[in-house]
Amino acid sequence: MSGGMWAEKYRPQTLDDMTNQTEIVSRLKMFVQEKNLPHLLFVGPAGVGKTTSILALARDLYGPGYRSFTLELNASDERGIDVIREKVKNFARTAAIASPVSFKILIMDEADSLTSAAQHALRRTMEIYTRTCRFCLIGNYSENIIDPIQSRCSIFRFSPLDEKDMKTYVMNIVENEQVEIIEEGLDAIYQASRGDLRKATNLLQAAAATKAVIDDVSIYEVLGKVSPERVRAMIQQSLEGNFLEAREILRELLIDQGLAPDDIIKMVYRELMRNTVLSEQWKVKLSDKVGEVDYRLTQGARPEIQLSTLLAHLALAGEEMK
After folding, report:
1. Residue at 272 is within a domain
2. pLDDT tens figures, 195-237
3. Are strands 104-109 and 133-139 parallel, antiparallel or unpaired?
4. 53 and 102 within one domain
């Protein structure tokens, strides 16, 4: 399969195929059973099944020919008022012919990218053509959707997939594609994707194209990031009081491997929170210092000096803990 095609190949086809999001799926199934549908607003982070859910609902509602009764638009490409006046209105005003239900479905992806004028035009269109068309608006942030539209929609809030569901989904692809993966690689995919199933699938495919066995190193190579082991070693050296050794690892990450300071500070914070030796009180103190260094980096301070300062604080913290 070509790059990124596994995500499409393994996309759930019906609502019964959906994983996680059980409460949302059960509500959508009720709409299918009743053969009726309100206007919908799906909000939540990327890659958690928003577009897949409405396409699965359409397939369950209309059958294999569901594409004849649906129109997908992406508002990030066509975000002005003209797309509402032309494409949306032309689709919404015509009745569904030979359809199991009396309405069609218009799917507006990334609707939170629509301009304010376009949203007000869309609100009026939704109002006028309710009999012949139902709208499903999809976005990451509900606050970017005007209140008149939100009040006309049934709102569904999607959450990121949990670790168990994501790993089950990834292992299903691994078995079907006959890919070899070890536990560290699976953990790395979960940590990197953070509940984004599309990103997890694409990471798996990219790593499988270059490595016979997928481990955490191959995943971080695909991401262009260093394995957390080096960051973990840097933190450990600092806490043990070996400031110069920790600083050498920092220079290796910054200069030799070209890792971005933002990525290093994020990984340091994540590893500190996962550290089982540090008490909660010390995690609070060090989080405050990480936040201070992160702010200074955003203000244009020199990365090596600021990150070295953070390592010095870790070394002092290690001495105090002893």
Report:
1. yes
2. 888 899 999 999 998 888 998 888 888 887 777 788 889 999 9
3. parallel
4. yes
Q: What are phi and psi of 43, to 5 degrees?
A: -130, 150
Q: Quick one: which of 290, 285, 286 has its CA closest to 306? A: 290
Nearest partner of 191 among 229, 143, 139, judged by Cα = 229
What pLDDT, in 10s, does the model give residues 42-69? 999 988 999 999 999 999 999 999 999 9
The structure tokens listed for 291 are 């936040």
Residues 6+ apart with CB under 8 A from 7: 197, 198, 201, 202, 205
Q: pLDDT tens digit string along 67-90?
A: 999 999 887 666 567 667 778 888
* Cβ-Cβ contacts under 8 Å for 294 (sequence gap 6 or more): 265, 269
DSSP structure class, residue 275: -
Residue 29, Cβ neighbours under 10 Å: how many? 17
Q: Which two tokens stand for residue 192?
A: 């990197």
Residue 112 forms part of a structural domain: yes
- Shared-domain flag, residues 120 and 180: no
